[in-house]
Amino acid sequence: MRITRKAALAAVAAVSAVSLVAACSSSDDPKGDPSKSSDSNAGINQDTSVNIAWNQPFYSANGTSITGNATANNVILYLLNSGFNYYDADLKLLQDKSFGSYEKVSDDPLKIKYTFADTASWSDGTPAGPEDLLLEWAAQSGKFNNVEAKTDPETGEVTNQDELDAGVYFDGASPAVALIKDTPVIEGKSITFTYSKPFADWETAIGVNLPAHVVAQRALGETDAAAATTKLIDAITNNTTADLSKIAKVWSKDFNFAQMPAAADKNLLVTSGAYTITDFVKDQYITLTANPDYKGDHKAVFNKVTVRYNGDPMGQVQALQNGEVDLINPQATADVLTAVKAIDGMKVESGPEGTYEHVDLQFGNGGPFDPKSYGGDAEKAKDVREAFLKTIPRQEIVDKLVKPLDSSATIRNSYTVVPGSPNYDAITAANGQGAAYDKVDIDGAKALLKDAGVDKVKVRLLFDPENTRRQNEYQLIKASAEQAGFTVEPYKVQTDWGTDLSGATKFYDAALFGWQSTSTAVTESDANYRTKAANNFYGYSNKTVDGLFDQLQTETDVAKQGEILGKVEAELVKDAFGVTIFQFPGVTAWNPAKIGNVSKLTIAPTIFYGFWEWTAGEAASN
């Protein structure tokens, strides 16, 4: 599922287990080929391996670009790359000092200093350092972008590629990083960021992503890593448009790959963590191999981790039963739960997850919810949006598809916080979503359509066609909406539904999918609802919402954060932005003879959490 994209879980209750990998790796190969490693096994049992099922293939090693920031990528990158911090089992954020440390050196202005450890290294042997964070700042801040991508309204294809090639366009945007307006200061192995105003979530605002030296080598034609790094620092520091244009293109595009890159592009596989990619077959599997030269605290247990892709939940169950995979976390249904419990010798756990289901509507694609379709009449468009949302059978979906897995399941009524979190009750009381949409109101929907002067409306619904539960939800939505005069058709996927979510907005009118968070930051929902933000794929714009998120960035009082989010959500309801439906029920199953000490996190990386604490059974040796 393409769901993480700096998703919208503003506050997550501590439920299970979570972490962010911190590791370092290197290679003996003089050309930096990550597929070649030293003869030393550094204590790793070379015979151990584990197979894990996942529903959507990896397609980008750039986990913070607008294109690549997705759960499908970030769960793999969790094993591949290091970071300054990670979550423990209680969702407490800890520093990984084997990669580096950070400290607040000033409150006014807010200044944060990051210092890289001697053990922080890329898998080609190049030390990780301040230039890696400097590059991420340049890409995410928006400071250097001097052109925007334009698309054909009929095909969704970029129409100004020459303009993009000539200018500077990083495919990344972070409201948090945009608060760092001054060029960061590098001193030795340290880099200091100065924020333009206080920011509540500074600890999770920025992290190491891509290897700066590789980006610079590919962009600027330098083979030597040190020389390439120097050129990159100079280009960013001096705002050299010609070089930044090349750097931006490499950062935005080169690390998007859905199969093993060609030998000439092997530097795309350079990682900063305990594993490297050693085999990758499109749409089938990706194999990660432990780096024996890793010097960090979170050492690999399994020499090889192969993630096998299967979007069919029952197909994953069958693969577990057949011994083809050892750990699964399929889309949960009652049939799936029954089936895994029937397999002898397996461990099975179920319970709510951090992902939530929702429907979002398009405001600017020329479709039925766009004011342009009614001569620019925003009220008519809102009436049509509201009418459609009144037909979505949220309670029926929960009763038929979720309660068989969790008898206590209820409708989720917040766009930004998970049920059970401190502000959930206050926010849902303030936003009015429950009163507006808890019950299907066909008569109300018909009246709104009549007021808008329309009686037949076609809605193209985007969802994952391979997902059984989404197919069932679509059928329930379709049957209900038809009673009010809506014809709901499944959107025909052009590439994969996750990519089309952001790249084919002309062709769908509503999207049914789930958001999953990668952190507990209260400002994470900013990227979903702010005008032109990274996860706002729908042309939604509300100046009040933008201003409220500006306030939220500096607010540290939990109760006041809830008040602000309640006001944000009330605007979303007033504008008929979309509806939330339910918190995901989850089913995790694994073969204890192959893998032990599995802990699942409610936020990404879910079942991959704490890979350094896994245990390998005797059967894990091949």
UniProtKB/TrEMBL annotation:
The lineage of its organism: Bacteria, Bacillati, Actinomycetota, Actinomycetes, Micrococcales. Keywords: Signal. One of its GO terms (cellular component) is ATP-binding cassette (ABC) transporter complex. It comes from Cellulomonas rhizosphaerae. Residues 103-520 form the Solute-binding protein family domain. This is ABC transporter family substrate-binding protein. One of its GO terms (molecular function) is peptide transmembrane transporter activity. Residues 1-22 form the signal peptide. PROSITE patterns: PROKAR_LIPOPROTEIN. InterPro entries: Peptide/Ni-bd, SBP_5, SBP_5_dom.
